[in-house]
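Consider this today:
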Amino acid sequence: MLLTKQIKIENSEAQVVAFLFQDSDASIRKRALELVYVLVNETNVKPLTKELIDYLEVSDEEFKGDLTAKICSIVEK
């Protein structure tokens, strides 16, 4: 049961991230990126990193640098 709750939380985090990255306000997207960085741990690193990489493909050019830097930092954690 605990594992099921953990999986649901991870899925919820990924959904929230995907939703926040679609916001037209660049400051919200940057804060969402900071939130993801803080939320990442060894149990959710794969799904959250996948969400970030997926978003990298469709993100604004101005956001790609920050996004790429955070992905690299997450991988190094």
Observations:
- Confidence is low (pLDDT under 50) at residues 1-7.
